[in-house]
Amino acid sequence: MIYREVIEFETGGENDYIDITHRVEDIVKRSNIRNGLVNVFVVGSTAAITTMEYEPGLRKDLARALARIAPSDIEYEHHKRWGDDNGRSHVKASIVGPSLIIPVENGRLLLGTWQQIVFLELDTRPRRRRVVVTVMGEE
Ligand code: ZN
Asked: Which residues contact 121 (CB under 8 A, 6 or more apart)?
């Protein structure tokens, strides 16, 4: 069977990284699916979903690494096209990706102890976000 819920929240803008592990775990519980997969997908092209150890040092390290790949002080064609200021946000979002699939076994996510499911706000301004969580499997 398939069970779906949408998580909605406000972000603080660029580099607001949010741990959504517990919200995904709660949805898996409500699904009553014991064995299968869960897909976590952010709607939009300036945010991303990944896993990481959610601690302040690594949050800074990841933000700095992404800023080296797509710095704020270079030219982006996207800005000329739309008058936007978030070319770097789109590039980072495409590289990290919008979704994850995590195995579910006996009703639990097979995540490591130091592996959280983390939403990355990459846009240059605060946004209202929707993350679609789809649980697939058998009860
Ligand atoms: Zn844009």
From this structure: 11, 12, 13, 14, 15, 16, 17, 18, 47, 127, 129
